[in-house]
């Protein structure tokens, strides 16, 4: 947790630096404008806005870090990536093995987005689609065989950290995943941010870090 004394110190330093910057700017303004009442009112309002904004940003960074059980975090992450597991199990390969098609229930981009919608943030699903799906000229879909998407279900993947960021009026679950693929893929790290829904269930709101790996 960020200490209160540290926050106060940062706030004071920020105010001092802000004052210095404003003074330097004022020195460049003609005296006739400085003496104007409207200018003085505007300057005071601007200072208040900057101070309030800076104070809010400092407050927003202030949180309590609470350790979260890694085994429970793994279960949550496995539930998040369950659509990936099902998708892999249901992909279709032609007789030659050169062409890999999506599962039968994925006929277009909308089907793909809806399939992952329950557990994945929308923009992450769209990013995944753009990386692994090839749209043919006849509007049918094909999977890019050179792309690999590793996740918690793969050998060599595990939970690196799990903790709750608790603020006064909210809390987030952070799960950091680390992977060292055993099939020649590159090591990766991935950060997941979860928030609880109305049913008190942790829902993934953002995923950052390695998404896919491409092999020629």
What would you note in describing this structure?
It is a single chain. This protein folds into 2 domains: 4-62; 66-214, Nuclear Transport Factor 2, Chain: A (Roll). The chain has helices spanning 4-27, 31-34, 37-60, 70-80, 82-90, 109-116, 122-132, and strands at 64-67, 92-93, 100-101, 133-135, 141-143, 147-148, 157-166, 171-179, 188-196, 202-209, 213-214. Strand 9 and strand 10 (202-209) form a beta hairpin. The chain is elongated and about 85 Å long. Strands 1-7-8-9-10 form a 5-stranded antiparallel beta sheet, with helices on one face. The protein has a two-stranded antiparallel sheet with strand order 2-3. A two-stranded antiparallel ribbon has the order 4-5. With 216 residues, the protein is α+β, with helices and mostly antiparallel strands. This is Tim44-like domain-containing protein. The chain crosses the membrane at residues 6-26, 38-59. Keywords: Membrane, Transmembrane, Transmembrane helix.
